[in-house]
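Case study B.
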Amino acid sequence: MPYVNIKVTREGVTAEQKSELIEGVTALLQKVLNKNPATTVVVIDEIDTDNWGIAGEQVTLRRNRGE
Amino acid sequence: MPYVNIKVTREGVTAEQKSELIEGVTALLQKVLNKNPATTVVVIDEIDTDNWGIAGEQVTLRRNRGE
Amino acid sequence: MPYVNIKVTREGVTAEQKSELIEGVTALLQKVLNKNPATTVVVIDEIDTDNWGIAGEQVTLRRNRGE
Amino acid sequence: MPYVNIKVTREGVTAEQKSELIEGVTALLQKVLNKNPATTVVVIDEIDTDNWGIAGEQVTLRRNRGE
Amino acid sequence: MPYVNIKVTREGVTAEQKSELIEGVTALLQKVLNKNPATTVVVIDEIDTDNWGIAGEQVTLRRNRGE
Amino acid sequence: MPYVNIKVTREGVTAEQKSELIEGVTALLQKVLNKNPATTVVVIDEIDTDNWGIAGEQVTLRRNRGE
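Model:
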């Protein structure tokens, strides 16, 4: 029954990578807390780099600097 | 003053259906908890089926199997 | 498969009222979007009035004024 | 280490305005709670006006009425 | 820089188990998306069983039936 | 109409500090986006240090090391 929300920047995450995240998180919750995979929900949000801030600045600016 | 967030898969939800969800949830909170509709906020998030996982797999795969 | 999060102030919401919210929202999603109740998840968060702000002030202050 | 999520309607928010929100919130958390800006995360969600409800109706309808 | 929110029912999750979840999710994001662990944030919410609904009913009721 | 959620560790945030956060964020949204303070909602979540992870470990452990 767990609900997991993963937020990452929108930078070319593939369908295959999303699938690995969903599988991995679901398995982790089963291993650590014995949660039933059948009702584990995972939602991935991809956020534009203009809309994500860290250290007071947009990720876009960090990417432009090559960080 | 309640805040409600509804997450569903992005599969052709119409503007009219969204309107019904907003109306229905706001009415429910007034009926059950006597909350003032004027300040009840509802936000609907539509999530790509690639980004939604249940039972360890993407909804896209389930839809491809006709589920 | 929908996920619904309801946030209200922590002001004596009873177990029965929570049950009505869960039942009502689940039924609404079935009625409007034909969503399967079996996998509809509802999470209710109760927030201290000190931690909820509207119009730039804490709800606690509004309650103290009888609003 | 704070995490801040700002949700606004998608109505032409510019990159510059997003930058000001990120900067302003990060500075506020440093001023009020002495939080280290280096690990303060801000995520801005822009929500279609069809998907945002207030007072039981979609923001789209309010905008159509000039509100 | 990812942000992950894990919601589970409040049913005796130990500090050690929380630690395993944090470690596991952070490692998963590094493995799948090459995300820097140093800025990966994980927040675990424990939700009272009265406040969690599935299939239109409170988890409390399911637990009372031994499910 | 904006909705802002601020998550910080539960480490003695006072009612007065919460009030400053609510006031400050509401003013920022008015200044940057001309949002009406009357309908700006702010919710502050305080998270136990056992439930907050950064760099793959619980904040509790960092605090124990004096970080």
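The CA atoms of residues 31 and 37 of chain A lie 10 Å apart. The remaining cases will be described in the next quarterly update.
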